[in-house]
Write a structure and sequence with these properties.
Largest interface: A-B, 23 and 30 residues
Order of helices and strands of chain B: EEEEEEEEEEE
Oligomer: heterodimer
Shape of chain B: globular
Distance between the termini of chain A: 41 Å
Number of helices of chain A: 0
Structural class of chain A: mainly beta
Helix content of chain B: under 10%
Low-confidence stretches of chain B: none
Low-confidence stretches of chain A: none
Number of helices of chain B: 0
Shape of chain A: globular
Largest sheet of chain B: 7 strands, mixed
Distance between the termini of chain B: 36 Å
Number of strands of chain B: 11
Structural class of chain B: mainly beta
Largest sheet of chain A: 6 strands, mixed
Chain lengths: 111, 115
């Protein structure tokens, strides 16, 4: 079946450091790919998405590129802030009502 | 718009009790889903609905029932609670069309503990 594997955390960084969270997927066909973010005590929010190969999603300084050759969708940010501390989930979908999630990566940014 | 709302925020049950987790959305979205979040496992789909009167099972449906009598509401029923159902439950909706056609919008969650 479809599955998503993302790097295990927790990840602890200093402010202004570079962040990368690796995400790879296994699927039959070409799904849409997503990064969701969960701030402490809240629900999930869509951070960015890409719907086809070579698409780049971007939002709030975060970027991820849909790489069909490597079945990857790695999340990057060049300079993190304390406010970026959250749990990040990579996910895939072939339709509008079912997301398959990775396990989540907890990121803590220290001032 | 309130978006996706869930009640209650917290609930403690004893084994064998039943209860209903409420979910409502005011965005006129066609699709709605229930997920559970467990440490180290991400979110897993319990049940989903593609429209009023239509529901189907997701990845982990056992022990849960759903119904969708209106577009707005999608309650999740625990028939006989078990400790394995201790989790955080999220409801989500998706418009099914437009610019955000494949995006899901999540509620704030219900934290359930079964003793």
């Amino acid at each position: 079946g479809d599955s998503v594997t993302q790097m295990e955390g927790p990840v602890t960084l200093s402010e202004e450091a570079f962040l990368t969270i690796n995400c790879t997927y296994t699927a039959t066909g070409y799904p849409s790919l997503f990064w969701y973010v969960q701030y402490p005590g809240e629900g999930l929010q869509l951070l960015l998405k890409a719907t086809k190969a070579d698409d780049k999603g971007s939002n709030k300084g975060f970027e991820a590129t849909y790489r069909k050759e490597t079945t990857s969708f790695h999340l990057e940010k060049g300079s993190v802030q304390v406010s970026d501390s959250a749990v990040y989930f990579c996910a895939l979908s072939f339709n509008d009502y079912k997301l398959s999630f990775g396990a989540g990566t907890t990121v803590t940014v220290r001032a | 718009n309130a978006g996706v709302t869930q009640t209650p925020k917290f609930q403690v049950l004893k084994t064998g009790q039943s209860m209903t987790l409420q979910c409502a959305q005011d965005m006129n979205h066609e699709y709605m889903s229930w997920y559970r979040q467990d440490p180290g496992m991400g979110l897993r789909l319990i049940h989903y609905s593609v429209g009023a009167g239509i529901t189907d099972q997701g990845e982990v449906p056992n022990g849960y029932n759903v119904s969708r009598s209106t577009t707005e509401d999608f309650p999740l029923r625990l028939l006989s609670a078990a400790p394995s159902q201790t989790s955080v439950y999220f409801c989500a909706s998706s418009p099914g069309q437009g610019v955000s056609y494949n995006e899901q919008f999540f509620g704030p969650g219900t934290r359930l503990t079964v003793l």
